[in-house]
Amino acid sequence: MNRLTVAQALAAARVKRLDRLDAQLLLGDALAHPRNWLLAHGEHVLDAAQAARFAAHCERRAGGEPVAYLLGEKEFHGLRLKIDRNVLVPRPDTETLVDWALELLAARPAKAAVADLGTGSGAIALALASARPDAGFCATDFSADALAVARANGQRLGLAVEWLQGDWWQAVGERRFDLVVSNPPYIAEDDPHLLALRHEPQAALTPGGDGLGAIRTLIADAADHLRPCGWLLLEHGHEQAQDVRSLMQRHGFASPTTRRDLAGLPRCTGAQLCAAR
After folding, report:
1. Cα(54)–Cα(66) distance, rounded to whole angstroms?
2. 14 and 119 together in one domain
3. pLDDT 10s digit of each residue in the chain, 277 long?
């Protein structure tokens, strides 16, 4: 791809069937210029190193690798997060969970205790900490590599979150919280969508079986970790909402409700537990 202009490079990406926005982001990265610069400089000629970097990224993107991994970052709820293959790429749909949590925190006094279980890149915890620095936040993950990504994001953004390694509730010991949020793995092990997600950490996508294993654990043991009338908010698959509500009711949660994501699909379910053990 030597001696290609910006316009020619983008045309070559279209031949590889890359999405227009993806191609612009990857070319902007190769040239160290924003997308709007590309639109005004179609005749700019790439040097050999820029052309090689863009070509390599196009090949990887054509193979299904997420753009966020190629760029090493992803924007989430107004924050720019560093991302690598140790963590899931934050999705816009997860902002539904963040927005709901912020509504609940608005009705809570300062210094509310909040936990994000299975934090990955730290996206949820950091978005909440950015909006409500008066609350106290901890975030957990079983993966030390994922937690290193989250911790680095927190340090770079200057946001106060305590990072704890461990499996779900085990990581927080005997602590209790006003609000617990989680985007756990919830895809069933035989779901064909997993093939398209093969570049992302599979343990963060599926717990195996029917996909509800981690959700069952989070709901079943919540009473030991929620303060009276504390809230549990969970992201889940769009076909799992009724199952999650039923599990919550079975474990004493009051009137579980479900919220829809940007596509109008049922994506998050939450409820209060006013009779903690």
Report:
1. 15
2. no
3. 458 889 989 998 988 889 899 999 999 999 988 888 988 888 899 888 899 999 999 999 988 899 999 999 999 999 999 999 999 999 999 999 999 999 999 987 778 999 999 999 999 999 999 999 999 999 999 999 999 999 999 999 999 999 999 999 999 999 999 999 999 999 999 898 888 889 999 999 999 899 999 999 999 999 999 999 999 999 999 999 999 999 999 999 989 999 999 899 999 999 999 864 5
Strands 136-141 and 162-165: parallel
d(CA 189, CA 205): 9
- Candidates 262, 230, 234, 228; CA nearest to 246 is 234
Nearest partner of 185 among 200, 165, 169, judged by Cα: 200
Strands (E), the chain: 73-76, 79-82, 113-117, 136-141, 162-165, 177-182, 226-235, 254-260, 266-273
Is 152:72 a contact under the CB 8 Å cutoff? no
CA distances from 24 to 42, 46, 77, 221 (A): 12, 14, 22, 46
Query: Do 164 and 213 sit in the same domain of this protein?
Result: yes
Give dist(CA 25, CA 94) in Å, integer: 22
Instruction: Judge if 101 and 204 occupy the same domain.
Output: yes
Whole-angstrom Cα distance, residue 174 to residue 221? 11
What's the domain range around 90?
85-273
Chain centre to alpha carbon of residue 88: 6
Alpha helices in 158-212 (DSSP H): 193-196
